[in-house]
Each structure stands twice: as C-alpha cells, then as structure tokens.
Amino acid sequence: MATGPIAVLFRRLIDNQTELFIFNEKSAGYKMAKRDTNILIVKHKDFGWIGTNAITAEITSRPWNVPEAEQSSLFPPEGEWVSKNGHKSYVYEVVHLNALNEAVDAKYETPPVDIFYDNLAAYYHLIFEDFDESVTQQGRQLSNIIHTTWPSLRNQSLAVKVLDVSCGIGTQSIALAALPNYIVSASDISHQAIEQLNNRAAKLKLSIPTSTCDMRVADKCHSPASFDIVMSADNSVPHLKSDADILLALKAMVACIKPGGGVLLTIRDYDKITRGLNQFKPYGVRIENGRRFILYQIWDFERDVNRVTFHIIEEVLETGMTNVLVSRSVYYAISIKKMLQLMYKAGLMGVKVLEDNEGFYQPVLVGTKPE
C-alpha cells in the first residue's frame, strides 16, 4: 500500500462537513477515523470502490463519474462521490492525503500554524519563568555562537546583520538587537506575535524592522544576499510538515545571506524523545497582574508526527474566575541527521550540530554559504 495515499478525505459539498478515512491493512481499505463507526471504503469485486457498512454490508457511497473499469485497484478515485443515507443523498468531494501529517491535521482539525501562535501570542512569554532574563541569556549565547562559528564577523567593522525568519514575540530578535554591533530584522507567520515583538521593542527603544512572512518565501519578503546570519530558533522549522517544505525554507534562507554568511537553526532532538501518546509537558505556574496561569502541553506522537496541544489555565485571583485556552499544532519529528542533510542540499557547507549546543537549551545546527 506504499504507493497509495495514507488517507482519503470526504468533504460534503452542501455544508463542507468532512469525514476522514485512514488506510486499514486488515480491511485492505480505508476505515472512518471516528470511533464507534463501521463505515469502510473498500474495493468491491463487482462495483469497484464503494463505501460500505462493515456489519450490514450495505453500500453507502460510490464514485459518481469514474467507472469501475477506470478505477485503480490500490486506492479509491478522487473527485465526486454520492452517498445514500435513508431517503437522503449527498454529494462529496474526495481527495487523497499523501502524508500522515495531512491526515492528522484533518482528523484532529489542527489549525494553521499562524492561528496556533496568534492564540498564544499574548501568553507566550509565560513559558519562561523570567522572560527578560531568558532573553538576556539567549542573547549572550547566540552572540557567542555566531562569533565562534563565523569568526570573520567578530572582526568586521560593520554591525552583524541578522534576519530572524521565525521571530515569534521576539525572544531571540530582541536578545540580539539589544547587544552592540547587531542589526536585526524579523519576520514571522503570526501577525499577533509580530505585534507583541513590536510592543516589546518599542518599550526597550530598539529598532527592529518586522514583517509577516512565511519562511518558505523569506527571500521574497527580504532583500536577497543582504544578511550575515539567518536564524530560526525554538524548533520552528519542524512546523513545516515535509522534507520538501523544509528544503524550500532552507533555500530561501540561503538566498537571504551574503556569501560567507550562515544559517543558524535550533530544533528538538527527536531521536532522544520518547514517542507515545498523552505525554504531559508542564511549564509551571506563573503569577502576573493579579492572575495565576498554569501552562502545560500534551504531546501525542504518530510515527514522525508530533501533535501538540497547549493548555493555558488563567485564574483571576480576586474573584476565582477561570478561563481556559487550548491551542493545537503539529510538528514533523525530523531527526537532526535529516535536517543537516537538507541544509547541505540547500547549498550550505560545513553543516554540523554544535557540541554541547554551546550552552543553548536546544541543539544548534549551523551551515555556511560558500564564498
């Protein structure tokens, strides 16, 4: 079944309601993702691909405009299908999902990455026990990494020009912009995160040009070959859900740096993370402006997909009134080895993971654009 889609998605045209069917080896077909259902999509010996009730054998749906003779023996046809439910009939559009992360997104209604961070932007600083101290510390660490990895930048008379393509609320952008001899530009897919960065930079009287931009087109949002360093920290790149998308982003980063400049990434080491479901990842309890915040994540792994559910419980201490925010996203659990291979494929030389991460809290990957 490796040559067929891992799942198929049925979208009802009248109201856009969707149903996900995931490949099931036992039935040699696709089983509805919802629990306690018996609906399968299978290849019938007489009628071709059909939807059927596994208990009653009743046919529930069929392709509308692809005859049985023209259908693949491996997977159901895309396009219009018609279903029958009692006296009612519905028309569905069927599409193949060729990657597991597509199936997971559809199954769990995972919002786009920008929505995930838009929801979290006002609270993201609470991840850190002391956000300002974390910013200061990361600035020192990143500056040391940059000067150690690219020593020519330490000696040049001009300021080091840095582009942060996944700046979020500014943890690393502000960290470097606050240091002497750094000029920082920043972009992110989340406009709410950018707004938080702008507000923080204004309070600190820092000049950080910002824009809303997908890192995969960073070279369209920023001037090519104009930065000494392009960085993406905090495991941002694995939000891209395929090798092809990551390679696209890396090539865009390379296009933005000058010859001899570098790309700096920080990501999780998924090879050292236990895979499984219902993993509890607490951040702790924070008190701010008369409110108590409890922050934690739940991680669920499905093969190379890390599905993350972020919970923030907010309690007004004076009244006891409580609000709960839940935001969901998906990461591609890419290995460091694979990421280094993609960095090399994108045109970087000397790609490596730094020993002991130079004190940084995540593995640091670097590569240099040839002169």
From TrEMBL:
Check the record and name the SUPFAM superfamilies matching this protein: S-adenosyl-L-methionine-dependent methyltransferases
- Any matching Pfam family: Methyltransf_25
The regions listed as transmembrane in this protein's record are: none
Q: Span of the secretion signal?
A: none
> Residues in domain Methyltransferase?
162-261
Protein's name according to its UniProt entry: Methyltransferase domain-containing protein
Species name for this entry?
Physocladia obscura
> Lineage, please?
Eukaryota, Fungi, Fungi incertae sedis, Chytridiomycota, Chytridiomycota incertae sedis
